[in-house]
Amino acid sequence: MSSALIPLAILMGLVTYPFRAIPLLAPGFERLPERLRLYLRLVGPSVLAALAAVNTMVGKSEAGTPAFRIGWEWLAIGLCILVVALRKSLLVGLILAAGSIAVLRALGVATPP
Amino acid sequence: MTLDASRRQLLVDSLGIMVSAGGFGLVYGLSARAAGFSPLEASAMSLIVFGGASQFVAVGYVLGGFSWLTIVLLTAFLNARHLLYAAALAPYLTDKPRPLRAVMAHVLTDEAFALAIAHFRRMGRADVRGYFLGAILSTFIPWNVATLVGVTIGGSIPDPSRFGLDVIFPAAMGGLAVGLVTGRRELVAAISGAVIGVAVALAWDPAAGIIAGGLIGPIVGMAIRPGPREHEREGQLAFGPEPAHEHAHDAPSEGLP
Questions:
Q1: Cβ within 8 Å, pair A24-B190
Q2: CB distance A23–B161 less than 8 Å?
């Protein structure tokens, strides 16, 4: 069994780990200025919303460049967000999102991106 | 919210993330197999890098014959957003032993951050067991098991997108973002993050969009005046316990805060 790519995996791990570790291991985070603490509090909703939006709305054109994507997935993800906002249940939202898009694809209404 | 109630909520939220991590891990395993990775190589990448997007890119670039330097640099770029996650979690973890924090860092992913930040904010403090429940049980284990299944069993597995599993990740991130919106500033930061993220992703690159949304969204949120009740809460900011009346008013019987 080939192991030729394991050094590549190690190199990829070596460049990834500092991004995950430096803020957790650097001393002084308990003495951050108030404004910076407020900023960090807002990072959560901001970056998660960016992840959701980019994964839903940005696809690839035939030329391989980023392209705006409109599809039934918007509806499924919107449904999940609505359920979380109204019912406070992420699990129900995810089941409805995956279930609705699976049904639409089975019916031939939606196609996988 | 109490520790037990918040952990119960974390466990329920983790179920959807677990399915998502398993589905994506399977697709990664299948892609790695198609690109000629051995099970050992595919699993080593999932264990050591543990970063979905960068692993998919590595598979494509290895297949395309790109240099390792290109792949490593692109990995650093794609995973730079983890710096934001670690910085947002760090103030909760300052009293934890450094070796423990070093281990926690390795399993910090989009999913682990989303679950942990919601869990910590519900309680107003850190919970190491809760963190590992979200990071390892719901993400690390399903991702690695599914990688191995995908790369070994291969073509006999049906396409996960047939079951709508590909929408679980963005839906979970959106749902968890909504759960973190407790005031005007969070709402504006979330909307700004999404708009800026999409704009930069279209103009340049999706990974850059996510980083830009995460960096600039909070600045826009900070420019907004908080409501009267939010202003009172911000006296305590994010990293201490919230006032008792806030818990009584805001804590739902189930679901996200």
A1: no
A2: no
On whether residue B171 sits in a domain, the answer given is no
How many folded domains does chain B comprise? 1
Write down the ipTM of this complex. Answer: 0.87
Query: How far, in Å, CA of B92 to CA of B124, rounded?
Result: 9
Residue B81 lies in a domain: yes
Q: How long is chain A? A: 113
Q: Is residue B98 in a domain?
A: yes
B222 part of a folded domain = no
Global confidence as pTM:
0.75
Contacts of B203 in chain A (CB under 8 A): 66
Burial B58-80 (b: 16+ CB within 10 A, else e): bbebbeeeeeeeebbebbbbbbb
Per-residue pLDDT of chain B (257 residues; tens, 9 = 90+): 888 999 999 999 999 889 888 888 888 898 888 888 999 999 999 999 999 888 988 888 888 788 999 899 989 888 888 998 999 999 999 999 999 999 999 999 999 999 999 999 999 999 999 999 999 999 999 999 999 999 998 767 677 778 888 888 889 889 888 988 989 999 999 999 999 999 999 999 888 898 899 899 999 999 998 877 665 555 444 444 333 333 333 333 333 33
CA-nearest of B217, B170, B225 to B189 is B217
Instruction: Kindly list the residues from chain A whose CB atom is less than 8 angstroms away from the CB atom of residue B159.
Output: 112
A112 at interface of B, judged by CB pairs closer than 8 A:
yes
Domain hosting residue B39, numbered range: 3-165
